[in-house]
Design goal:
Blueprint (H helix, E strand, L loop, with lengths): L6 E8 L5 H14 L3 E5 L8 H4 L4 E7 L5 H12 L3 E5 H5 L6 H7 L1 E5 L4 E8 L13 E6 L2 E4 L4 E7 L12 E10 L2 E6 L11 H14 L5
Parallel strand pairs: 1-2, 1-3, 3-4, 4-11
Antiparallel strand pairs: 5-8, 6-7, 6-9, 9-10, 10-11
């Protein structure tokens, strides 16, 4: 007896500076190596069919900025409420569809700034007992250190502390880097790392995202 593999949808586009197509290739390879069947779309029209969206175990928004139609936003949110996972990273999910506050509520946060642009900073692990984070240690990464407006109901997996070097008045401020949350019956995972594809060459970063996406898809307990 054969088992039909879980299906994932990656929707890529938006601001080209975040190299959405390159990231789509990385994420597709990551998910396929874990046994998921992946559909890659480069148009938001992929969100037009509400019934089709509910057939996916995971949807990965990879679309910095841009704008959803009211129907696309509702279809996406309804699919996650019904049990489809939502997972993504950096601006592709956390700085997407800036005008859509209902989308932001589902994600659990929204990009506000990246003081200092790309620089080296430290990430601390917060939830060492969660299966996404088990066995992972804090690490340094060179990326945009996202300062985010974050829902306090999130389960925070990792954080970063701002030094004040670039903006003095935020010195010592701790901001979540990665979190999970429920949205209806769906699981949501987000990480603010992922400005440049080379960041996924860091083994801890790659494993964090792999596990987070699989958890959102229901493939990681």
């Amino acid at each position: 007896m054969t088992t039909t593999p879980a299906r994932a949808l990656i929707v890529s586009g938006g601001w080209p500076g975040h190299q959405p197509q390159k990231f789509a290739e990385i994420i597709q390879g990551m998910l396929e190596s874990a046994g998921l069947q992946v559909t890659a779309a480069d148009t938001l029209d992929a969100l037009n069919d509400s019934d089709a969206l509910r057939g996916y175990a995971l949807i990965v928004p990879n679309w910095t900025m841009g704008r959803l139609s009211d129907n696309q936003s509702k279809n996406l949110r309804d699919a996650v409420k019904a049990g489809t996972g939502l997972g993504g990273f950096h601006g592709g999910m956390g700085d997407a569809f800036r005008e859509d506050t209902a989308y932001q509520f589902m994600v659990g946060g929204q990009f506000a700034a990246h003081p200092g642009d790309v620089h080296r900073y430290h990430v601390d692990i917060s939830a060492t007992d969660h299966p996404i984070m088990r066995g992972l240690s804090g690490f340094d990464i060179e990326s945009e250190q996202y300062y985010m407006h974050v829902d306090p109901s999130n389960t925070v997996l990792a954080t970063t502390t701002f030094s004040g070097e670039h903006v003095a008045w935020i010195e010592g401020t701790v901001i979540p880097v990665a979190w999970i949350r429920p949205y209806g019956q769906g699981r949501v995972f987000y990480s603010s790392i992922g400005h440049d594809p080379r960041e996924f060459e860091h083994p801890t970063v790659a494993e964090l995202h792999r596990r987070g996406l699989l958890w959102a898809a229901g493939s990681l307990a």
